[in-house]
């Protein structure tokens, strides 16, 4: 199962790869990373139909924001699930994301246990 | 002799009338009355020619002489002195006539014509003098009335003057009062303006703080996550290492790994400390959410008195303060708006610091600043006491302490809102705030919080 993480912080890649080391090793999941909304759309658009099942995106990013990316994905790839990860857990962002069709909303610092559970469930449903 | 007595009667009558507005003493009036009666009697005797004529004639002279004497030597009759002179020639001629007639009637007969002539002249003299006197008296009277009028005007002027003076004084005090009120209003405006500027600064500072906190939070998350991960990996490494056969190198590696692990644990620990500071910064800049959550009050007091202390130490003019916590361990968890209530503790402790700083400046190093914070379970209520041994609060301003914008701090140091907000927060928790103080010794803020609030009971 291919999962795309979108965050402007490059170290996110190392963190998530290490956190999901076992899952990646076992071939359960495959991770990809994009560092802007635009890059994420490019990655998703490269394959037709894209193999990505799940996208986790930061909200506050330079250029295209996570919420804009969410809208774009929902238009162009309606089958891909999107969850948001943000340091700003205020109700405004949350409502906006959920109304735009986000599957979940995670606040930073990320609760990895919850994230792992979410992904495991997704894997099971595949 | 009738003439002499008529003169006597006339003089007395005239004198009596001349008193005018000024009353003569009763004694004098009595003299006038008796004199008039005597003159009347003597006239009567003279008409019926009652003997001995010589005696009654003599008495007539005595009477007129007495009257003249009275006029000349009575202070009240000073203005009538000319009256005494008027009848003198007539009296003189009559007296001469009487004496000569009594001593030698023959000489009298020879001189009678001359004496009569003298009498006539004396009469003319008297009439002239009388008219003169009347004129004089009238002038005096006019002058008197004039003087009186002047006096009256003077008095009226003085009265008006004093009235004006009172009016001026009244107006002056009114104007002074208005000036004071205006000054007060101006002061109030100025302090309000300062406070608004201060609040504006605080607001932008709050935004800045929130921004900074967010910026710090992201890298801090990495620090925490990576250190946590590394600890996990070290656990795994440990598991793998167990599979390798023992050797000196392995022992060394294990030792080093143990050190690395403890370092990582320290990084994680201090990272989470920094995280909680950032969180509280964010909490304060965001403002209250208004929810009452189960809170460990003692922990909250520990955390925020500590935060206030370190904040004070990090700011200009730090002071040495002994903070004594006497917290009742049996305190139950109660429902509080922790965010708001932390502000109460911060405000009270910070106020105490500021007050004690003033006392340190005043007294020097002999004074040891001390804050005691106490919690106590009192059955239905929880008591929180914050007491400092600072300069105390004078009675005059104790009532004003909780008023918004009241501050004793100079310039822009205080917003005057701290205690007012504190009071509002305590009220919103259905609590009571009381202030006790003794100037120069202590100030004690006591908060009494109900364990169960009315709002909770009903739901």
Automatic annotation (TrEMBL), chain A:
Modified residues (4-aspartylphosphate): 58
GO BP, one annotated term: phosphorelay signal transduction system
Domain annotation Response regulatory: ranges: 2-123
Keyword Cell membrane included in the entry's annotation: no
InterPro entries reported in the protein's UniProt record: Bact_response_regulator, CheY-like_superfamily, Sig_transdc_resp-reg_receiver
Keyword field contains Phosphoprotein: yes
Sorted UniProt keywords: Phosphoprotein
One Pfam entry name: Response_reg
Gene3D superfamilies in UniProt: 3.40.50.2300
Protein name: Response regulator receiver domain-containing protein
Organism: Algoriphagus alkaliphilus
UniProtKB/TrEMBL annotation, chain B:
Top-level lineage group: Bacteria
Species of the source: Algoriphagus alkaliphilus
EC assignment: 2.7.13.3
Coiled-coil boundaries: 137-202
Domain Histidine kinase residues, every copy: 211-453
Keywords tagged on the record: Coiled coil, Kinase, Membrane, Phosphoprotein, Transferase, Transmembrane, Transmembrane helix
Lineage: Bacteria, Pseudomonadati, Bacteroidota, Cytophagia, Cytophagales
Catalytic activity entry: ATP + protein L-histidine = ADP + protein N-phospho-L-histidine
Protein name (Swiss-Prot/TrEMBL): histidine kinase
Transmembrane segments: 31-48, 55-73, 114-131
